[in-house]
Amino acid sequence: QVQLVESGGGLVQAGGSLRLSCVASGIIFSNRAMGWYRQAPGKQRELVAAITSGDSTDYADSVKGRFTISRDNNKKTMYLQMNSLKPEDTAVYYCKLRFGADYWGQGTQVTVSS
Fold first, then answer.
1. What are the angstrom distances between the C-alpha of 110 and each of 67, 93, 103?
2. In 3-state terms, what secondary structure has residue 89?
3. Which of 69, 66, 67 is nearest to 55 (CA)?
4. Phi, psi of 8 (to 5 degrees)
5. What is residue 108's three-state secondary structure?
6. How far apart (Å, rounded) are the C-alpha atoms in residues 72 and 86?
7. CA-CA distance, 80 to 69, in Å (whole number)?
8. Which of 74, 87, 88, 93 has its C-alpha lying 20 to 30 A from 64's C-alpha?
9. DSSP state letters, 32-88
10. pLDDT cut 90: percent of the chain above it
11. Which pLDDT does position 79 carry in this prediction?
12. What are the pLDDT digits (tens) for 57-83?
């Protein structure tokens, strides 16, 4: 069955870095549209970064220049490198992959302290 397993979340100080990973199983991984979303308390879920089947990338304005999305098709893993973290980046982060339907990871908590 389809599974997306996330790791790498945690507590970090402002200005620090963190890398999130999302490992896929049970599906074809290569050349799928994928992305990272986040949802902060009291706010709607928003797109943070996306990578298309052609490896084009898009970022929310709030993270542009600080976050980088990438993937390793051989490892069936998607990454989100987060640098210069700010307290407003605190949220639950979710990975998503399209394979006919949208599949979501379980979410991982990222907390940035001031």
1. 14, 7, 20
2. helix
3. 69
4. 105, -10
5. strand
6. 27
7. 5
8. 74
9. --EEEEEE-TTS--EEEEEE-TT--EEE-TTTTTTEEEEEETTTTEEEEEE-S--GG
10. 86
11. 97
12. 999 999 999 999 999 999 999 999 999
User: Starting from the edge strand earliest in sequence, which strands make up the sheet with 67-72, in order?
Assistant: 3-7, 18-25, 77-82, 67-72
Which of helix, strand or coil describes residue 20?
Answer: strand
Q: Whole-angstrom Cα distance, residue 79 to residue 45?
A: 19
What does the pLDDT average to over 98-108? 92
1 — pLDDT class (breaks 50, 70, 90): confident
Can you give the pLDDT at residue 32?
A: 87
What's the N-to-C CA distance of the chain in angstroms?
A: 40
**3-state DSSP assignment of residue 18:** strand
Query: Which of these, 52, 92, 89, 58, lies nearest to 71 by C-alpha position?
Result: 52
What is the residue type of 22?
C
Q: Rg (Cα) of the chain, in Å, rounded?
A: 13
Amino acid code (one letter) for 95: C
